[in-house]
Amino acid sequence: MEPDWQDRAFHHHIATLIDALDGPDFWTRLTRVIERFLAFDNWVALVFIRDRAPLVCAESPMPDGTVDLLFRAYLEGMYQLDPFYINACERPRAGLVTLAEVAPDNFRMTDYYQRYFKSNIIGDEVQFNLPLDARRTLIISLGAKHHYTERDIAMFAMFAPWVMALMRQRLPYEPLAASQAADGDEGAPQSEAAAASEAAPGARDVDYASRFEAVARQSGRTALTAREIEVVRQSLSGFSTRAIAERLEISFETVRAHKKHIYAKLGVSSQSELFALFYEPNGREGA
């Protein structure tokens, strides 16, 4: 059977992407090809790094050309509550990842969802993930104001093989993904782009435990134990008390007891106050 014009056009678009692999506009051109077939509203290419802030490869511009303050807040700390980031760090795997697969059971009740996701992503999100090693995963995220349909997800899954292949071939030209500095090798040379990202606010927030300890110390509050810190992070990420118990392999009542002690130590009375303390500078100062 002879290929129709749509087949010919598709092959042409793939060819242009291969030609763009070593160019600065690769990510933009990749998203333009995908959006010929699927509607989405924003995108970003990142390197997720366990216990470190993500590194930005490229991002969709704001309509008015201004800085996306919500995305800056994400890079400065809220990424620690991102279900995609958590999943990539805990269970790295290559391929298409959907929000439905990774979102905790109480995700839509969290302050992270209400104050960041709903405002910035708005409706739904999928990612193409390419693990680079045990700590790093190269991802491209596609966010939409609407919820992706079953057909949309099926199309994304159909595109995954060639998207992943192109991401893999892009690696030699992507200084952020290839930088050995992201692996903690202080003696390795660092690209200018990677150095700039390292200097960005929040880039030296090594992990959530360090963040929580620093906030408690600065505000004169009683320090949390390692287990209490883990309960806080999972709770703020959207895991219910029962889900936290299952993940940490402790009893439901033990998790409730941890939460009671956490609130008492930090002088807070709600999840929103807990979120503000650790992830909103104004909430921290006013506490």
TrEMBL record:
Keywords: DNA-binding, Transcription, Transcription regulation
Region feature Disordered, mapped onto this chain: 178-202
GO molecular function, one term: DNA binding
Tree of life domain: Bacteria
GO biological process, one term: regulation of DNA-templated transcription
Biased composition (Low complexity): 187-202
CDD domains for this protein: LuxR_C_like
The keyword Transcription appears for this protein: yes
Name the record gives this protein: LuxR family transcriptional regulator
